[in-house]
Amino acid sequence: LVLGKDDDGKTVADDKKSASPSAKPSATDTGSAPPVENPRGSDSDPKPVVPGWKVVTNPKWGTQFDVPGDWEVASSGMFSGFEDAKKPDGPPVAGFSAPAYYKSKWCVDDSDGDGSEEDTGLAGVGTKGAQGAKNTDEAATNEAANWVWAAYAQLDPKSKVKIGKPKPFTTESGLSGSVVQATALELANKEKCDSDGKSIAFSFKNSKGDFSTWVLYAAAGVKDELPDTTIQKILSTVRLSGQPTG
């Protein structure tokens, strides 16, 4: 289900046929190393807004945000997305870069019986562009809806996806934009690792004036569900960082 691509566009993770969200791609690119824990840190290391959390940097879109210390941060050059459950060989139906994951091996199953087990995580977060969007309301609405559908509800009726109205939002750094939440509840959940889901998208303009969107998806109604309070705290740390390379 989750595809990973490096900066050269090569696929670096196994294509999964499951429609439930896998966690971290099975391989990462070599374009940039994932952050290394350093108990003393260094002057050049980005400092988290929340003490004890990890910084996620996306050079392509010129953004940073923090995640709790027990999250897994992939390399900044990693592209991660959900494949089309009905056309696994086609392009991914959702994707973002420089991702981070919560409990990436929360559930393990060989749902398609191909002998290869798939890891399903509790949550994932990353940043993407919003080409074609007319404004931040539209961008956030589109991404919140698409991600909860792609991660959880591809094989369910589209009516299961409920999309909230866009609301103005400003992060702790003063970055303003629009935020939208969406849910996919009461799904069929036929496989062991299937679950209902929720998503939140925050769209804004980066320092180049391009629309960008921070997106988080998470399993809903499960044990160890990522609390909405934690999601809001992560969202509050989204900030611009450097000149976008994308």
Automatic annotation (TrEMBL):
Residues 46-241 form the DUF8017 domain. The lineage of its organism: Bacteria, Bacillati, Actinomycetota, Actinomycetes, Kitasatosporales. InterPro entries: DUF8017. Coiled coil: none annotated. It comes from the Bacteria. This is DUF8017 domain-containing protein. Residues 19-30 have a biased composition (Low complexity). Residues 1-18 have a biased composition (Basic and acidic residues). Pfam families: DUF8017. Residues 110-120 have a biased composition (Acidic residues).
